[in-house]
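We now fix the convention by which a protein and its fold are recorded. The integers have meaning only within a learned vocabulary of local backbone shapes. The record below shows the convention in full.
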Amino acid sequence: MKYTNIFKLPCIAGVMMIFGCSLTSSCTEDEVMTGDINTNRYESSNELLGYLTDSQGKHMSSNIEFRSSGELSLFLNLTKEASSNCGISITYDESVLEE
């Protein structure tokens, strides 16, 4: 009889912990409320701006390694639709690519 009581108590405690965690972690609201955000530091622009991305859409960082030679496709994206024809040119510093 003592043998069954030893396993019964941890099982009941485990079930109670799972039940308690599910009650406290469940949400009834669809919105996540965050704290107040200071938007004074953000600036928006009405100008047409362009940015380069790789084929996966990454624009902040991409890890690329060329052992002997290689090729990388870059894509120009715009923040809004261009109202007229526009021309672009891209230059880079070759010295940053050398070891």
In short: The chain is about 25% helix and 10% strand. Helices lie at 2-25. The first helix runs from residue 2 to 25. The two ends are 75 Å apart (CA to CA).
